Amino acid sequence: MKLSEKQALFTVMIAQLIYWADEHGYRLTFGEAYRTPEQAAINAKNGKGIKNSLHTERLAVDFNLFINGEYRPDTPSYKPLGEFWESIGGTWGGRFNDGNHFSLEHNGVK
């Protein structure tokens, strides 16, 4: 699948995730979506990400999660969203050390 096709698929999947979250009482706001390769390199150097981040390919997004109006930055709160994300074909999200990150695998990177 070409990158542009995967990006289009990812966009639809993110819409499904947002809609599912809303229907189940979770409120999401966008955190980081696109990240320049230069910023990814800086983050990697500082131990806050990887150089070949899927954010640079527009295949990852970070969300801010609110439950009952309360901001929830802890990974366990994202678990139900991660399970839904995986059920629709997502490869990283909600259940790992950075629960707010949701991405779609590309060239072996999750």
Give a short overview.
By secondary structure, the protein is an alpha+beta fold. It has helices at 3-23, 37-45, 79-87, and strands spanning 26-30, 60-67, 70-71, 92-93, 101-103.
Task: Give structural notes.
The chain has 110 residues and is an alpha+beta fold. Helix content is 35%, strand content 18%. The protein is built from 3 helices and 5 strands.
Sheet with the most strands? 5 strands, antiparallel
Helix content: 25-40%
Class by alpha and beta content = alpha+beta
Pattern of helices and strands: HEHEEHEE
Globally, the shape reads globular
Mean pLDDT over the residues: 92
The parts where pLDDT drops under 50 for at least 5 residues are none
Q: What is Rg?
A: 14 Å
Helix count, DSSP H or I runs of 4 or more residues: 3
Strand fraction equals 15-25%
